[in-house]
Amino acid sequence: MKSAAKMTLRLLVMMSVTALAQTNSCPLQPVLVKNVSSQISVFLQNTSGKQVTAYHVGLTFFDVNGKARRFPQTFADKIALKSHGKRTAIWNSPQTHQFLQPLAKAYLLDATFSDGTEWLDDGSHSCSVTSVQE
């Protein structure tokens, strides 16, 4: 059990270091992700100087060996989130019971701003957070 916990912690540290290096280019930063009781919760902070009007988030789960399992659906939200505002988005998804893994990564796929401009992920999923699941 101790070695599995060490592997999980090591994997989380490696993912966090990668994400920290790329945070500045992220207009809507995921801060925390939780998979509890058929609900996905993602806490986000608008780090841009603009109001966000819509966004999409993707998820990947990791087992204790670091094997990734991408969640088959993305989550969308339309909301007026002011510059530097914070939001906890909650989506119901019964399918999350099949993804009870020790680590969850939420990543921003795109964001639309009130001035009509967009931010799109380049495929790197660098605008992300990885959280330990309880």
Walk me through the structure:
- The chain is mainly beta and 134 residues long.
- The protein has one domain: Immunoglobulin-like, CATH 2.60.40.
- Helices cover 15% and strands 48% of the residues.
- It contains one helix and nine strands.
- The protein has one helix at residues 2-21; strands at 28-36, 39-46, 52-62, 68-70, 75-81, 86-92, 103-113, 118-120, 128-132.
- Strands 3, 4, 5, 7, 8 and 9 form a six-stranded antiparallel sheet that branches. It has a three-stranded antiparallel sheet with strand order 1-2-6, with no helix packed on it.
- A hairpin with a 2-residue loop joins strand 1 and strand 2.
- It is globular.
Which keywords apply here?
1 helix; 6-stranded antiparallel beta sheet; Immunoglobulin-like; mainly beta; 15% helix; 3-stranded antiparallel beta sheet; 134 residues
SSE layout and pairing:
Blueprint: H1 2-21, E1 28-36, E2 39-46, E3 52-62, E4 68-70, E5 75-81, E6 86-92, E7 103-113, E8 118-120, E9 128-132
Antiparallel strand pairs: 1-2, 2-6, 3-4, 3-5, 3-7, 7-8, 7-9
CATH architecture descriptor = Sandwich
**How many distinct folded domains?**
1
Total strand segments: 9
| Biggest β-sheet description | 6 strands, antiparallel
Proportion in helices: 10-25%
Reported by name, the CATH topology is Immunoglobulin-like
